[in-house]
């Protein structure tokens, strides 16, 4: 065994052992990287340098702003407005409240950018509401947690900013645009699954569609939806950078939450900022420690070795794409979303580009794969939150979610093998 092979084994196997021993991922990444550097006889000064370098990025400054914006808007009383808007759109269908849940998640995801925030905020309102109207509690929870993953795809998503950084600084604006249609595909897929189950179980319909009610709810919700326009239109039109648009959106969110919807007080603002600091500290620690891990991977030429290994198995583009999906899905069962993006992007992106997958398209594939991982035992954060909100055993929720896993996998395969789903809007509105 060569020195490089031993160092790679220490890095990767050491990390996996620490993860299985339930070490926090950030510590597992840092300790395995430290052991790798010590084995190679390198100074630990490089560890500190890489940690600082990992978070010394202007584009990364957008992440705390997007997190703050999502928490402020989520605490500011907009959930009820978006639910009412979704109800005016699709509540008339069989299983109408399930459809409302899915559409409301699409709207709310465009504001929070977080599946966890979506589940906690909308789930606490919609799950009891659905149960009161005759829906099974486990079905209501399954719809809530799976639809929350739309928020990872619909901009502004801080995970897309993290991917853009990990991929070497690709356009955040193009990534934002790329998420809209895949998010809609995921929503439609979940709605089809919900409709089939609703017909089978004879779940109720809502009131008939009314154009007047729709426009009334749209006008009420326009203040919340305008936050998305500030970010996306500003970035796409070149008026702001992603960081600048996120900062402006935070100020706008504060004004709307305090003075328009009046769902937030100044005391609530401080509580929300406290939550922002907690979330941001976790994200930044992961980014800084993952930067060391990425440095070790690059120095040991792991991306090249992985590329040769996978491409050596087969030259079939379809099989390689499926292997990439499978690797990310399996990692999603043992790791959280941010470390998967930070650690695997430098390894898998070169392989994806060699088989003709655009880096923008691969970003959407990566985010949706990781989103499915958030719903799987044993570390699925959204699965735990949904179970806690509904006060159900995790096993019950997983069983009810099985049909929706199929819907999500169908959406994933469509996004993987039809590039136009991800690239149509970026190519049309923001050509490279």
Overview features:
single chain; 432 residues; mainly alpha; 2 domains; 22 helices
Describe it.
By secondary structure, the chain is mostly helical. It folds into two domains: 42 residues; 373 residues, no CATH class. Helix 4 runs antiparallel to helix 10 and helix 17 packs parallel to helix 19. The longest helix has 34 residues. It starts with a helix and ends with a helix.
Give the topology, please.
Layout: H1 3-20, H2 25-39, H3 45-55, H4 62-75, H5 78-90, H6 96-112, H7 115-132, H8 137-147, H9 150-153, H10 158-166, H11 172-178, H12 180-201, H13 211-236, H14 242-260, H15 266-299, H16 302-313, H17 317-332, H18 337-354, H19 359-373, H20 381-390, H21 394-417, H22 419-429
Helix pairs in contact: 1-2, 2-15, 3-15, 4-10, 4-14, 4-15, 5-6, 5-13, 6-7, 6-8, 6-12, 7-8, 7-20, 8-20, 8-21, 10-18, 11-22, 12-21, 13-14, 15-18, 16-18, 17-18, 17-19, 18-19, 19-21, 21-22
When the domains are counted, the total is: 2
* Strand composition percent: under 5%
Which class of secondary structure composition applies to the elements? mainly alpha
Rounded to an integer in angstroms, the radius of gyration calculated over CA atoms is 22 Å
> What is the approximate shape?
globular
How many DSSP helices? 22
Average of per-residue pLDDT values: 83
- List how many beta strands DSSP finds: 0
Give unreliable regions as ranges.
none
The H-and-E topology, N to C, reads as HHHHHHHHHHHHHHHHHHHHHH
Q: Sheet bearing the most strands, described?
A: none
N-end to C-end Cα span: 45 Å
Q: Please give the share of residues in helix.
A: over 70%
């Amino acid at each position: 065994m060569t020195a490089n092979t031993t160092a790679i084994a220490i890095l990767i196997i050491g990390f996996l052992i620490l993860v299985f021993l339930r070490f926090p991922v950030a510590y597992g990444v840092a300790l395995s990287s430290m052991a790798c550097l010590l084995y190679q006889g390198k100074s630990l000064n490089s560890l500190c340098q890489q940690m600082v370098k990992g978070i010394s990025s202007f584009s990364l400054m957008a992440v705390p702003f997007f997190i703050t914006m999502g928490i402020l808007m989520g605490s500011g009383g907009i959930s009820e407005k978006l639910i009412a808007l979704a109800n005016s759109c699709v509540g008339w269908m069989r299983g109408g409240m399930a459809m409302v849940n899915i559409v409301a998640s699409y709207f709310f995801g465009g504001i929070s950018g977080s599946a966890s925030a979506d589940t906690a905020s909308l789930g606490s309102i919609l799950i009891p509401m659905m149960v009161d109207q005759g829906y099974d509690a486990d079905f209501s929870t399954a719809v809530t947690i799976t639809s929350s993953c739309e928020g990872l795809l619909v901009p502004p998503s801080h995970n897309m900013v993290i991917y853009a950084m990990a991929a070497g600084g690709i356009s955040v604006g193009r990534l934002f645009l790329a998420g809209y249609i895949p998010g809609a595909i995921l929503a439609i897929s979940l709605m089809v699954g919900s409709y089939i189950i609703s017909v089978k179980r004879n779940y109720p319909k809502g009131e008939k569609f009314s154009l007047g009610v729709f426009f009334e709810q749209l006008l009420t919700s326009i203040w919340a939806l305008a936050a998305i326009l500030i970010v996306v239109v500003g970035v796409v039109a070149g008026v702001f950078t992603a960081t600048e648009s996120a900062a402006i959106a935070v100020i706008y969110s504060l004004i709307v939450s305090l003075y328009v919807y009046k769902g937030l007080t100044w005391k609530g603002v401080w509580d929300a900022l406290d939550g922002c600091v907690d979330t941001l500290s976790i994200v930044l620690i992961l980014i800084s420690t993952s930067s060391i891990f990425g440095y070790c991977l690059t120095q040991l030429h792991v991306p090249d070795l992985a590329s040769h290994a996978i491409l050596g198995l087969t030259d079939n583009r379809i099989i390689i794409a499926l292997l990439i999906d499978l690797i990310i899905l399996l990692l999603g069962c043992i790791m959280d979303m941010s470390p998967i993006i930070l650690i695997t992007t430098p390894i898998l992106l070169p392989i994806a580009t060699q088989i003709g997958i655009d880096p923008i398209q691969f970003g959407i594939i990566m985010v949706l794969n990781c989103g499915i991982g958030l719903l799987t035992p044993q570390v699925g954060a959204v699965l735990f939150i949904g179970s806690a909100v509904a006060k159900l055993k995790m096993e019950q929720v997983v069983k009810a979610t099985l049909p929706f896993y199929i819907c999500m996998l169908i959406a994933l395969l469509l996004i993987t093998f039809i590039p136009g789903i991800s690239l149509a809007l970026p190519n049309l509105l923001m050509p490279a």
